[in-house]
Sequence to fold (316 residues):
Amino acid sequence: MNVDEQADTELVRRFQRGDEAAFHAIVRRFQDPVYRLAAVWLDDAQQADDAVQEVFLRSFRGLRGFRFRSAPFTWLYRMTKNVCFEFNRKRRPEALEHEPRDTALGPEGFATRLDSARRVRELVSELPARQREVVVLRIFEDLSVRDTAHAMGCREGTVKALLHKAMNRLQAMTDGKQEL
Amino acid sequence: MTDEINELRRQYQAIEAPPHLARRIEASLASRRPAPRSWWPAVATAAACLALLVAVPLLRQPPAEQQAAMPRTPSLSVLSRVAAARPPVSAPNLNRLRSVSPPAPPPRPALRPSSTPPSNDDMESHRMEEISHDYV
Fold:
């Protein structure tokens, strides 16, 4: 267990003992990675905001029963993935046309945030779902092979094999774009 | 890892949650949380029920003097262990029973004195007479 994971575990333990300030610390600590995941899994920023809110609302209830069999982040990752799948399932096609814009950052901030997510999403969405997951967790989020396997619910060998295939494919995709 | 993938990773890690999101989550949590003293009625109800459970048997119990005056009824389990004393009855002597002679049967009714029983022919002729008498 690394230093970050120890700190995360300690925060969760404090929350389980009834310290609500610890939960706000968890929100502030994990809101960026959870938001990044949601931005890659979902299509628009507004939905990503809603999904992150839903993830933390469910975590508020769920973390009380957390048994520390995995790192808190891998638990949150699974929750985020489930919520994003639910959002994608519920999403109506016409919502894409009239999606409300997040104006809190101003037009430039919004565009930058959305563009980064969109560029990443465009490339990563070409990959099969499992390869996309492994790239996001292992390459983008810097999780260890063990934690990636925990988050994905598979063996470490599977993670390595999926990563190898995904990297080859990504490499081919980026080479192809450069040639074009 | 190639430069392109490194660039992709840098772009991914540059994505940040909007600054208002944490406040929005905290506000949403606060709105969903029940009022801090909402558990009081539940606790008060539970305490009242508990008090009733304890008090009702005590109220139904008679005072100590009355309880002392009342005859104590033995418990059924004690009663079941107590064997009932049998009266001292000697077993009947079988020899004596055999020596007792049964009472004499009542006298048989005497047969009425009659002549020879009527033959079938007599009975038939008697019947024919009756029939012929009816139709004449």
